[in-house]
Amino acid sequence: MDKVNVEQKLSLFSDHWSPKIVAELNGQAVKLVKIAGEFVWHHHDNEDELFYVIKGQLRMEFRDQCVLLNPGEFIVVPRGVEHRPVAEQEVHLILFEPVETLNTGNVSDERTRADLDRI
């Protein structure tokens, strides 16, 4: 049972759109990620996703609305809902989702990360 220092873990990497697993519990992964710019529109057929903002401002785009999230705020994107995370400036996030969740969901492109690093 080791504690996790989120800031220390975030200092270990600088790449964007490449989630890192920092813990697992009950089939769920706790992931850290840094993002900048626009991601791909996608959805997850079988998984809900939680996005918790640590630093910066996240704009979560949906086809019918946008939700702005600031540090200390989170959003749960239900399975099947098409979405696109956008960060005008670098954003640091904690993601909470099933271990098998693919970051690009139903889309496969150059940002797809099938095997995540554990830090």
What do these coordinates show?
This protein is mainly beta and 119 residues long. The protein has a single domain, classed as Jelly Rolls. The protein is 4% helix and 46% strand. The protein has one helix and eight strands; from the N terminus they run αββββββββ. It has one helix at residues 6-10, and strands at 20-25, 28-38, 49-55, 58-62, 66-69, 74-77, 83-98, 117-118. Strands 1, 2, 3, 4, 5, 6, 7 and 8 form an eight-stranded mixed sheet that branches.
List the helices and strands and how they pair.
Layout: H1 6-10, E1 20-25, E2 28-38, E3 49-55, E4 58-62, E5 66-69, E6 74-77, E7 83-98, E8 117-118
Parallel strand pairs: 1-8
Antiparallel strand pairs: 1-2, 2-7, 3-6, 3-7, 4-5, 4-7
